[in-house]
């Protein structure tokens, strides 16, 4: 049974994820990024369990390390020179810190998008944007569901090729490359056919026609209104703080981060509560159901 934040109205979920991702992706304050990473990791662990957490960890760890190491090689801003490269360009402490912040940003974004993919399903995308931009809604819906379907089909194709002796894990390098190309060709063909079938299916159902009606199971409930109101109030508080430079930060030419003051601390607390709201809603709903079951 789906409960908690997963059962909320799609508009509620859209407003929440848009708010958190906006502050995370366009505001690189290190404390904000750490809060987003912590809350995002907790929610990934909640919705995806241990497997989901380690899947996102493997995906981000190597890339994050590469960003931290590569950024100082291409960005030479900053006043704290640690060493000089063979070409004469300086290796600065600020470039390392900016690379770490960029790696944090990428990790946070991927973790939140993992939760988006788990909760904000394709039917919810169709419901929200189907009448406004039908083609874009269908494209987003297909994109969200493509990765999981592609991985499942890839496992099927690889298993079939393995039984025929055409697997990429055995044989000479040339044979492995040939077998890999064969599998890739099958996957490309499957992707194209699947896209055409989906397009034909939606067209035959009259998708995108102005007079077409559609049944919806989604209704805005009292908890949706409360949740959206709290999110919008948190957004307003954060925007006022950012406008007043209560969360000032700078990586170049020197590192300057403002984390002092009651107002700044209140912004951190509000953003933490904002990021934890889905988890709080889920835990509250689980406790409610456990209480009801204990009385039966």
Provide structural commentary:
Helix 1 runs antiparallel to helix 3 (93-119). Strand 3 (249-250) and strand 4 form a beta hairpin. With 296 residues, this protein is mainly α. The chain is globular. It is built from eight helices and four strands; from the N terminus they run ααββαααααββα. A two-stranded antiparallel sheet has the order 1-2. A two-stranded antiparallel sheet has the order 3-4. The chain folds into two domains: 4-122 and 225-294, no CATH class; 146-204, no CATH class. It has helices at residues 10-26, 30-74, 93-119, 122-129, 134-163, 173-204, 222-243, 262-294; strands spanning 81-84, 90-92, 249-250, 256-257.
SSE inventory with pairings:
Blueprint: H1 10-26, H2 30-74, E1 81-84, E2 90-92, H3 93-119, H4 122-129, H5 134-163, H6 173-204, H7 222-243, E3 249-250, E4 256-257, H8 262-294
Antiparallel strand pairs: 1-2, 3-4
Task: Give helix and strand order, one letter per element, not per position.
Answer: HHEEHHHHHEEH
Q: Oligomer, anyone?
A: single chain
- In terms of DSSP E residues, the strand content is under 5%
Structural class assignment: mainly alpha
Task: Evaluate the radius of gyration.
Answer: 24 Å
User: How would a crystallographer describe the biggest sheet?
Assistant: 2 strands, antiparallel
Percent of residues in helices: over 70%
Overall shape: it is globular
Strand ordering within the main sheet: 1-2
Would you tell me the overall average pLDDT?
83
């Amino acid at each position: 049974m789906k409960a908690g934040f997963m059962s909320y109205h799609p508009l509620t979920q859209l407003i929440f994820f848009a708010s958190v991702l906006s502050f995370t992706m366009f505001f690189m304050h290190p404390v904000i990024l750490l809060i987003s990473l912590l809350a995002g990791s907790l929610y990934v662990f909640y919705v995806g369990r241990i497997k989901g957490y380690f899947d996102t960890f493997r995906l981000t760890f190597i890339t994050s390390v590469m960003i931290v190491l590569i950024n100082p090689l291409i960005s030479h801003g900053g006043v704290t020179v640690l060493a000089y490269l063979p070409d004469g360009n300086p290796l600065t402490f600020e470039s390392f810190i900016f690379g770490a912040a960029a790696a944090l940003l990428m990790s946070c974004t991927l973790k939140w998008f993992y939760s988006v993919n788990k909760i904000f399903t394709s039917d919810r995308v169709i419901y929200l944007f189907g009448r406004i931009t039908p083609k874009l809604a269908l494209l987003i819906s297909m994109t969200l569901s493509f990765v999981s379907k592609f991985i499942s089909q890839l496992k099927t194709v690889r298993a079939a090729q393995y039984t025929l002796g055409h697997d990429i894990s055995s044989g000479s390098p040339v044979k492995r490359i040939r077998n890999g190309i064969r599998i890739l060709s099958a996957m490309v063909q499957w992707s194209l056919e699947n896209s055409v079938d989906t397009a034909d299916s939606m067209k035959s159902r009259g998708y995108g026609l102005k007079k077409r009606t559609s049944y919806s199971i989604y209704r805005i409930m009292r908890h949706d209104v409360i949740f959206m109101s709290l999110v919008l109030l948190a957004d307003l508080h954060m925007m006022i703080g950012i406008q007043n430079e209560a969360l000032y930060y700078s990586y170049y030419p020197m590192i300057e981060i403002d984390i002092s003051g009651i107002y700044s601390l209140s912004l951190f607390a509000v953003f933490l509560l904002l990021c934890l709201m889905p988890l709080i809603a889920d835990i509250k709903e689980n406790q409610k159901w456990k209480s009801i079951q204990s009385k039966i």
